[in-house]
Write a structure and sequence with these properties.
seven-stranded antiparallel β-sheet; mainly beta; signal; Ricin_B_lectin; 494 residues; Ricin_B-like_lectins; globular
């Protein structure tokens, strides 16, 4: 943690708070490299290295000499921090050598609270074969909350884990955990983190920010076994600083980069649209803010705080052209790693909005013009920290089919009157009325948009109630099967 400590000291000496802008870091490790992540709190012969396109964290008891670093085989992100709300998604696999009677941390929300104190605010553990969480509140190491997330956690099996947290000292905190798309832990309206110095949850200290750590922290040194080894694998890791991040960090998408709609701050009914298909020079315009591939952009991290935005399902990126001038068109062009016309600096404009400043013409940013109408042109204009014409909200979206992309057969299936559901959209309880569709073989299943089964019930009559209160907001698929056929409906959870 020495690198983080030096960053804090420099900020203190200059009298400024140097907290990084919101970011997304995503890596599936298929290129064989660990970067932008790096080994942290790890001392040889223990290691966290990419092996066969995933991170292998290896720890052996013979390395332990009493120090913190010889308990760990961990990795962190290089110069990545979040200050209030964050998300982490990853695929984890306990190696076949992993003991079932041990205790270790495998993921941490790690908070810097002062120049002399930093520790975990929440620790995801393997304890005697179970996946558990321990989290702290309001600046103390006492009064920890402990809970089992997943009993008898399997070994040698890929398991997708998503963590969402909000720091708070005024009972407005939150922590959520999903395993394989199913909500396994939810604690809301709590004090969470080392935050007692905050006033109304507004951070007044340069030290109150968090880092997210993955890998083994084998703190059960009294329970070590001579010459034992422990191996844990990680893959498809995404860390996101902001809200509405479930679909952004979801590891079931294969660790792909984050997908967004870029919504105009002062005209939220409109977002950047790349038009149908893609070709060099195709103009980018505003269009009605809907969940559609033409308005969905994949964020690609180019390093140094710069990002490119690739139109979903194409090889075309947002390009500002050569140089910069007021009114210069912003259009699609074939994506290229080294084309700085496609590199945009994300500058935090507050309240979840960002200005996108051109890398090789920093005096110009992407501007949506005054107000908002369909087909209104998007162009470059002199960079301004005040005009909301240049401020964009990043709405995370999944890559599931939108209504506009569904086939006629899918729509007919969804609109079937063989059974009714209400209310839809739903907040908490979903009512299902089976009409004439019920028989002795009927069962009902709810799936995520990625096809992961969340729950299944066998009804005893024509009416069923499902409690969806612990599910995250988004789109789900309800399937009803009887002895002759299977029908589905789309469910929207608020």
């Amino acid at each position: 943690m020495k690198k983080k400590y030096l960053l804090i000291v420099i900020s203190f000496l200059t009298g400024t708070i140097q907290l990084l802008d919101a970011q997304t870091l995503s890596h599936n490790f298929n290129n064989g490299s660990l970067g932008p992540f790096y080994e942290c709190s790890t001392q040889s012969p223990n290691y966290s290295q990419v092996v066969n396109s995933r991170v292998k964290t290896h720890w052996q008891e013979s390395s332990y000499n009493g120090s913190r670093s010889t308990k760990g085989a961990e990795f962190c992100a290089n110069n990545w921090d979040t200050t209030k709300e964050g998300w982490m998604g990853f695929t984890m696999n306990l190696g076949p050598d992993y003991p079932t009677n041990k205790t270790a941390g495998i993921a941490q929300i790690f908070q810097f609270y002062s120049s002399t104190f930093w520790s975990w605010a929440a620790l995801i553990n393997i304890m005697n074969g179970d996946l558990q969480i321990t989290h702290r509140s309001n600046g103390g190491t006492s009064g920890n909350t402990n809970a089992v997330i997943y009993s008898n956690f399997p070994k040698n099996t890929n398991m997708d884990i998503i963590i969402h947290f909000v720091l708070s000292a005024s009972n407005a905190g939150l922590i959520q955990i999903w395993v394989n798309g199913v909500s396994r832990y939810y604690a809301n309206n709590i004090n969470f983190g080392y935050a007692e110095s905050w006033s109304n949850d507004v951070q007044s200290s340069q030290y109150s920010y968090v880092d997210l750590k993955l890998g083994q922290y084998n703190y059960d040194d009294a329970n070590y076994t001579n010459n034992e080894t422990r191996t844990v694998y990680y893959d498809n890791v995404t860390w996101y600083d902001g809200s509405n991040g479930y679909s952004i960090v979801d590891p079931s998408g294969g660790g792909s980069s984050a997908n967004f709609r870029l919504v105009k701050r002062n005209a939220t009914g409109f977002a950047m649209d790349g038009g149908s298909g893609g070709s060099n020079g195709q103009s980018i315009e505003l269009y009605n803010n809907i969940n559609h591939a033409n308005l969905t952009w994949t964020e690609i991290n180019r390093g140094g705080g710069y990002y490119s935005y690739q139109k979903l399902n194409t090889n075309y990126c947002i390009d500002g052209g050569n140089g910069g001038a007021n009114g210069q068109d912003v259009y699609l062009w074939t994506c290229s790693d080294n084309n700085q016309n496609q590199h945009w600096l994300k500058i935090n404009a507050g309240n979840g909005h960002y200005r996108l400043q051109k890398r090789n013409a920093s005096g110009y940013s992407i501007d949506g013009g005054n107000g908002g109408t369909s087909n209104q042109n998007v162009y470059l204009w002199s960079s301004s920290s005040t005009t909301q014409n240049q401020q964009w909200r990043f709405d995370g979206v999944s890559t599931a089919k939108s209504a506009e992309q569904k086939t006629e057969a899918e729509e007919l299936t969804e609109n079937s009157n063989a059974f009714n559901v209400y209310p839809n959209p739903v907040n908490n309880e979903l009512n299902i009325k089976l009409n004439d569709y019920y028989d002795e073989e009927t069962f009902i299943a709810l799936y995520s948009i990625h096809g992961q089964k969340i729950t299944q019930v066998k009804p005893s009559n024509h009416e069923v109630k499902l409690d969806l209160s612990r599910l995250h907001s988004g789109v789900y698929i309800l399937m009803v099967n009887n002895k002759s056929e299977s029908l589905t409906k789309k469910i929207v959870k608020l």
